[in-house]
Specification:
heterodimer; A: about 220 residues; alpha+beta; twelve-stranded antiparallel beta sheet; globular; B: alpha+beta; outer membrane lipoprotein receptor (LolB), chain A
Chain lengths: ~220, ~220
């Protein structure tokens, strides 16, 4: 009976997983423009970003914190501080090829939490590590650049004509694991150029979670 | 109902200084300093406070920040343990403590939603400390040792090592006005601290009980 239940769960998870979609081919002369568009979501230079963050957990609980992130895609470094709305720092960690936790108050003290968080930050702000394997268009007309990382995961960078973008990550079984949606400011200032005013990250699956990041301040360092 | 004292308005009255008013200020300052000679005196003076409200400016200093993160808000207190701590910016949030119930609400999608996160326990401890300070209770504190320094500064250091991992010390600067705390600085480390400056302090005003029960 137990093995039947397990089989059913595996079957449900397999069926419910969103699969990697195919892409419509595009006129080769448009490829340089598509590739240029695909670089829009990713920052150049060193930035300090301050967000209010709403985290929705698998049990339905919602928590709110403030996140301060200094990222430098060129050097591949991240410094991230999470604090309560009142200013109590609960997490402080840096990433430079490996994660170093400077401060972690339970439950923010685990290396797994730090690793997942850094992976989420990299997914949102860093250009994918892997090879560009395909480019084209989706049914709705959005442009897509498809990257495959060394570990077999696939990342689709999808840009719409209004410069809103979506990043989708698939595991090596081509199942959707993460979706990032970015919304740009209505009025762009120089300092906020291409820094989304709102970011939504959804981690799919049975123990999925979601994060909504509202921009408080962005500063090019 | 006790008379409502708006301290900010009293300060404004000292705009046009003359020799007599300066002398008066010096004398009254001297008298007010006298309220904070010992922790027992502070507790006794603060014991007459039934309610309080004030605006505050909070500056979060961190090594990672190029400039401090500034938050603004207002708080309401009613003896013995009711507190409404409300941030207006940059993220509107309301912390309510009343009759042993603690809740926090955050602005979300145009409304206020309740925060059910686990970090509320730590903040509960911090806000319970604040209500004790407003009561003038410093030296019978279960979590901190209190030391009165040079008359107007109280330094609180954690009793337990587990707490000192989170908060190294807290410094309270007392106002010359009896019963009023001018500023609070919470040190998590030497380069990570939160400074709160209070202004427009009102003592024994009509602070409605509903403020501690309802968010609007």
């Amino acid at each position: 009976m137990k093995s039947l239940n397990l089989l059913l769960i595996i079957l449900i998870l397999t069926i419910s997983c969103s699969r990697l979609p195919g892409l419509d081919s595009e006129d080769p002369s448009k490829m340089p423009d598509i590739h240029k568009r695909c670089s829009i979501p990713f920052l150049n230079g060193k930035w300090q970003l301050i967000h209010s963050i709403e985290a929705a957990m698998p049990d339905g609980k919602k928590g709110f914190v403030v996140g301060i992130t200094v990222i430098s895609p060129q050097t591949g470094t991240i410094h991230c501080v999470i604090m309560t709305i009142e200013g109590l720092v609960v997490f402080d960690a840096q990433y430079r090829q490996k994660v170093v936790i400077n401060r972690g108050i339970p439950p923010f003290d685990s290396t797994d939490f730090a690793r997942y968080l850094m992976n989420d930050i990299k997914l949102i702000f860093f250009k994918p590590d892997g090879q560009l394997i395909e480019s084209g268009r989706q049914n709705n007309g959005s442009y897509v650049c498809r990257y495959r990382n060394n570990n077999g995961t696939i990342v689709d960078v999808i840009t719409n004509k209004d410069n809103m973008w979506i990043i989708r990550q698939y595991n090596n079984k081509f199942c959707l694991t993460h979706t990032v949606r970015a919304y740009l400011p209505k009025k762009l200032s120089v300092s906020q150029k291409m820094i989304p005013r709102r970011l939504e990250l959804i981690s799919h699956g049975p123990v999925g979670y979601s994060l909504v990041l509202e921009l408080i301040n962005a500063e090019l360092l | 109902m006790a008379e409502c004292i708006k301290w900010q308005e009293k300060v404004k009255n000292y705009k046009n200084y003359d020799v007599l008013s300066i002398f008066a200020i010096l004398i009254t300052s001297y008298l007010f300093i006298g309220w904070a000679n010992t922790l027992e005196q502070i507790e006794k003076k603060a014991g007459g406070i039934e309610s309080m409200s004030a605006e505050f400016i909070q500056e979060k200093h961190l090594k990672i920040l190029t400039e401090p993160l500034v938050s603004k808000g207002v708080f309401y207190y009613r003896a013995p343990k009711s507190l409404r701590w409300e941030y207006m910016s940059p993220v509107r949030s309301i912390f309510l403590m009343h009759n042993g119930n603690i809740k926090r609400f955050i602005r979300h999608n145009g409304g206020l939603v309740e925060d059910s996160s686990i970090n509320l326990q730590t903040m509960q401890m911090v806000f319970q400390e604040i209500t004790m300070w407003l009561n003038g209770h410093f030296d019978d504190n279960a979590n901190f040792n209190a030391n009165l320094k040079d008359g107007l500064r109280i330094v609180l250091t954690p009793k337990e090592e587990s707490l000192s991992m989170m908060i190294k010390r807290i410094e309270l600067i007392l106002s010359h006005r009896p019963g009023i705390i001018k500023s609070v600085t919470i040190y998590e480390s030497e380069d990570s601290f939160t400074n709160l400056e209070f202004r427009k302090v009102r003592l024994n005003c009509n602070v409605r009980e509903s403020l501690f029960r309802k968010v609007k």
